[in-house]
């Protein structure tokens, strides 16, 4: 039998490796920027076209490479970061596997220019699909410039799996933000389609966070600082009142490397115990410094997950540090054991003249509670003052005997009892009942139908928005005074990319600045107070790719608007509102499910109800 095992050609092996290293344009951005940081760059520029699908170019002023290193850098497992296996457990650099450039060059057109500081001329290399097209000496600036064009040009199936430009840009911005936040001592510039998105100057940590997320972030931050033998913690957490409904601005950095850790996240959330509403998530920017040999970075291809030697100790320290800072800056209630001397009674107070005396008590020995009001006449001439005991005044105004005190209670419930009774009973609305301010119960011929009021309203609004956007010409209402809303630079860039779609929905934009959007008109179905909520929800949905845009942003927008504006659980509906919602739901094309695939109602037939009680 002939041998069947054979070695793969280099270009095939590189394409297989590229499938692990390069998942989308953001993966290329991450690898190239990290290489620039490891090269000692103080200034890094990132230029993009078409969300990185057409061009990703990173320019730095780092140490550059020699002619030999420039060519060798595109070979598999070629790296300057480690020399032996032991170095994997004492890493102080970003990339170290030596697969990045080889993988990128296997699936794109790559052009590299690089020059060392002490050299007069540099090198230029052009590679297409792992094949070196040209290598020559050129005049170039100190550092390295690498341009990646036509990503996945030779793997069309992978290119087809990429999302819309808006979503791919969001992933790139995420990677850019993570690196920029980890290195405030480096200046960063991000341009997308010749538009400047970020221009981050060298600064301190707080200024870098504010520069990335906007000026409004400054008031939210509470500083964190702690140093122990096994870990040093620095950074900021956001005040509880600025917590978000979705996980957004949550950043852990270990030795200046961004990581994800549900275990450490639990420690931070635990420190906020009692300060957050249910379902809210705190924002934080936490920087941990630990000995490199106490962590293992090489357990995940993207190196965003690491393993700690002493997780439990780190958990306790992190939780205590955050909790202490929240109390120290009067964000959380704390126990203060320092006595305030001004509140103490002086020891020599009893020696002073005019010391307080016990107030006299007068007793009416002839008072008989069993006498009627007409029989009883107090001997004292004093009368009860306003605000006297209620039971006593009620008794004196009674019908003549003490039993009236109890008969009144039996026949007339107290205010508290009436309120309790009202909250427990269901409000009857003809054929419709509202249950626990969450469901509507409607009677039908075959039984009953139970409707989730929030999900049902989402379905109604979704179809209404989608019809107005795609079929009808969306009507817009002009605002008397334009509204200015602050966003981060990345969010403003995202709004700008979907500007035409938003205008189709009825929005009118007067101006875009680096940190705000000025809106002059809104759809008639949205109130002015809901503008910020609607846009923030839309941005979150696009960032999280929920839902996926099946044909355009219109579907995403309609679903997002419906989710933002639908009535919520806990809303009391009038009789007319309940009837309208039921009628509107069953007038929809797809009344059975919400825009996100959840059931809007459940029908219980009479037989199903009978079976519950006949078991």
UniProtKB/TrEMBL annotation:
Domain MutL C-terminal dimerisation: 431-573
Any one annotated GO CC term: mismatch repair complex
One GO BP annotation of this record: mismatch repair
Matches recorded under Gene3D superfamilies: 3.30.230.10, Histidine kinase-like ATPase, C-terminal domain (3.30.565.10), MutL, C-terminal domain, dimerisation subdomain (3.30.1540.20), MutL, C-terminal domain, regulatory subdomain (3.30.1370.100)
Keyword check for Nuclease: yes
Keywords tagged on the record: DNA damage, DNA repair, Endonuclease, Hydrolase, Nuclease
Keyword Magnesium listed: no
Domain DNA mismatch repair protein S5: 209-327
Pfam families: DNA_mis_repair, HATPase_c_3, MutL_C
Function (record text): This protein is involved in the repair of mismatches in DNA. It is required for dam-dependent methyl-directed DNA mismatch repair. May act as a 'molecular matchmaker', a protein that promotes the formation of a stable complex between two or more DNA-binding proteins in an ATP-dependent manner without itself being part of a final effector complex.
Name recorded for this polypeptide: DNA mismatch repair protein MutL
Annotated organism of origin: Tenacibaculum pelagium
